[in-house]
Amino acid sequence: MRCAFSMMLLLASALSSQLASSQTTYIMTNASGGTGANQCLIFSGNNGTAQPSRFLWTTYNPEYCGFSSEQELLQNKQAVWKLVSIAEDSYIITHSSPDGRLTQCLIFGGNNQDTFPSRYLWGAGQNQFCGFSGKEELLRNKQAVWKLRALDGNRQYIVLHSSKDNNRDECLIFNGNGSATYPSRFLWGSGAGQFCGFGSREELLKNKQAVWTIKITNSDPNCKYKPFAYDNGPTGQPSWCGECNVDLQTPKSTQAPINIQNARHDASLPAITFNYDATPLQYLANLQNLKVAGKGSITIGNLGTFDLVEFHFHRPSEEAINNHRAAMVIHLVHQNASKAVAVVSILVEEGPEPTPDAKKLIGELIRNFPPPLTPKTPPSINADNLLPPGSRDYFRFAGSLTTPPCTEGLTFFVLKTPIYLPADQIQAFARRFPSPNSRDIQETNDREIVEKIK
Fold first, then answer.
1. Three-state DSSP state, 122
2. Fewer CB within 10 Å of terminal CB in the chain, N or C?
3. Distance of alpha carbon 55 from alpha carbon 43, whole angstroms
4. Residue 278 CA neighbour count, 13 Å, CB half
5. How many CB atoms lie within 10 A of CB 216?
6. Would strands 264-266 and 320-321 be described as parallel, antiparallel, or unpaired?
7. Largest Cα–Cα distance of the chain, in whole Å?
8. Mean pLDDT of the residues in the chain
9. How far apart are the first and last CA of the chain?
10. What is the CA 189 to chain-centroid distance, rounded?
11. Of residues 147 and 68, which shows the higher confidence score?
């Protein structure tokens, strides 16, 4: 859920421009060697060397590779990397040139024969394919093609490259039992298998020679505008900025979504009164899912009235009930005069007898799927048609945005009664937004989950 309320009315072109201009950069660290501390992969000598090495000249402030601040790190550039996806599971890893003007690729030179990687210095290095004529030639040559495999949910990866004969992937390691200064291709074993020659993931993580931590460096206030993905890749969930991974340090966090179970029954909880109005269809700028402007409000007992700002869709559902995630979920996002946020979640199941009003409204959205954006003559829609008939009882819990920056302080009201849609409508969302767009279930952290019952 991307509840960036101040930006909701921007045109799609404005948001696309912002995304295109954002510069997502990373630091790559390794914790093997004598110190046991995470040390950064850098070009030393004030960014003047040709081969990267482990950052050994200080362990001060490891969060920023020894620099005093994120700003100083980004200005110096010695330890700043960019990762660009060029094919499924394949990346180019780039770095600034010694003069700071060009972007150059990390490669194995000598037509992929070198043992140690180096900065791409044999060409200008300024184009998107590392000096090759196109993506196909780059992928065929393999000198600059890297693969990343997530080892866990804590930003840890193995970094793979083809061997000299181009037949197998080998790991980027610090050999000598992790004591070497310069990383090399994993040549001391077969290089086969998913754990870099170690017997298991646990053995690999314990040895650390080939374990890399890759995390975003510039987690600034522009976090909510940065590209992100739902997988475990470099821009995936373990690397989300803002408060998204705060639970790694703060066990009491209230990140969403959660698995709803063991809720406390409370017949005194207020009913939600829905007062939605018809409005012309207006899509809001969003790259990950369908987001629609809404009109009307809800009233929740003494909590008062919340205006409907927008509603959007996740596939599969983000919230789970007793470990079951529905086919989809609709999040209706509301805000009151004090900027407090209330999210009503409507679970969507596939069924042979669809909810009639919901089916009709969803059909209208599908017929007008963006792009293009809002049609020139938009149909009238009413979010009231999305509500399940019958009981409006709910589960309530404290939560957060479920996309970066994952700001906490929201209250979720998950309706217990789902709506039903036909299979072809759910498949239409899958075709229009082919990648799953749901955040992983987060830890409950002993927060209270309350269930309204009659």
1. coil
2. C
3. 9
4. 5
5. 20
6. unpaired
7. 74
8. 82
9. 30
10. 34
11. 147
